[in-house]
Amino acid sequence: MTHEQILEWSCSNDAREIQLDRLLRDHLGNISWNRARQLITTGKVSVNGCAVLDPSARVHPGDQVHLNPTAPKVGIRHSPQIPLLYVDSQIVVVNKPSGISTVPYDNEERGTLYQQVRSQLSTRDRRTPAPLHVVHRIDKETSGVVVFARTHSALLGLKQLFRKHDIERRYLALVHGKLGPRIFRSRLIADRGDGKRGSTLNPKLGREAVTHARPLEFFQAATLVECTLETGRTHQIRIQLSEAGFPLFGECVYAKAPTSDREVPRLMLHAKTLGFNHPNTEIPLHFTLDMPDDMRTFLEGLRVP
Questions:
Q1: What is the DSSP track for 158-222?
Q2: 78 is a domain residue
Q3: What gap in Å lies between CA 82 and CA 99, rounded to an integer?
Q4: Which of 23, 45, 67 delimits the end of a domain?
Q5: What backbone torsions phi and psi does residue 270 show, to the nearest 5 degrees?
Q6: How far apart are CA 73 and CA 166, in angstroms?
Q7: N-terminal to C-terminal alpha carbon distance within the chain
Q8: 174: domain CATH number?
Q9: pLDDT tens string for the chain (305 positions)?
Q10: Is residue 157 part of a domain?
């Protein structure tokens, strides 16, 4: 392997996407699966100019993959102890840091939110293994409030609340451009034609997604936005804002975001608020998290004239 390699991948219409670790294996056939994944998780690989730490990330036709084996090592960014916002016998609500997956993408991934919370609960309750069930997920680079169920009945109750959209969900997003108050409505599909998720005008396809955007602060060429979700589709905010011409800072999948004169530490998206009725007691619960330090520091830089 040379010190630096540029890999350009394209494919026919019948093979629109491939996992990043498999792409490295296909182009560098002399390396093992573990080595391919190690290169990715330590920050040696970027896609379209953005570092990608998830070996299961999908690469699409036209994407440019940059491999630099000598790039500085990036460790898994996780908190030694995940902050537990609320714990009882039925549910646990946590503050997810940016940089870790909510759940493992395969049996080899370690340090995920699910694994860390389960380990903490096992230690706390002296019960190994501690039961824990996944209710919803947020992206690896997104921070914020996440709820897990600790019993099967709580899982069913929370799933029902999410299915009926009886959940309050608010996000903070930093976007390129000047975005005023707006309601985004579209039908999201798993493949918009290039292997990526997106919107369709066909009323018979996809699932409706509704996002209410409210500007909180304007910068020279950016807006801090609060997004309230009526629905909770995969990548809903990222897709709808990108398609409308307001991609998030750090967006590398759904739009080629405008370049910034400041290095973006990660996708600028934070799950600020989660509110719901307890699945067993029906007592209203409401959790709100302040903007994390990395986003706050980046915004402070934008305020500097």
A1: HHHHHHTT--EEEEEEEEES---SEEEEEEEES-SSSSS-EEES-TTSSEEEEEEEEEEEE-SSE
A2: no
A3: 13
A4: 67
A5: -140, 125
A6: 42
A7: 44
A8: 3.30.2350.10
A9: 444 555 555 444 445 677 788 888 887 877 888 788 888 877 788 776 667 777 777 777 777 788 888 776 654 444 568 999 999 999 999 999 999 999 887 666 778 999 999 988 888 777 667 789 999 999 999 999 999 999 999 999 999 999 999 999 999 999 999 999 999 999 999 888 778 898 888 988 989 999 999 999 999 999 999 999 999 899 999 999 999 999 999 998 888 766 666 788 899 999 999 999 999 999 999 999 999 999 999 999 998 76
A10: no
Catalytic residue among 21, 63, 139, 294: 139
DSSP H or E stretch at residue 128: none
139 has catalytic annotation: yes
| Tokens found for residue 271 | 């799950």
Distance CA 267, CA 292 (A): 12
Amino acid at 125: D
Tell me if 229 is assigned to some domain: yes
Q: CA nearest 167: which of 285, 270, 86, 290?
A: 285
Is residue 12 in some structural domain? yes
**Distance between CA atoms of residues 44 and 22, nearest Å:** 15
Placement of tokens 């996944």 in the chain = 134
Domain count, the chain: 2
Note down the domain range covering 15: 5-67
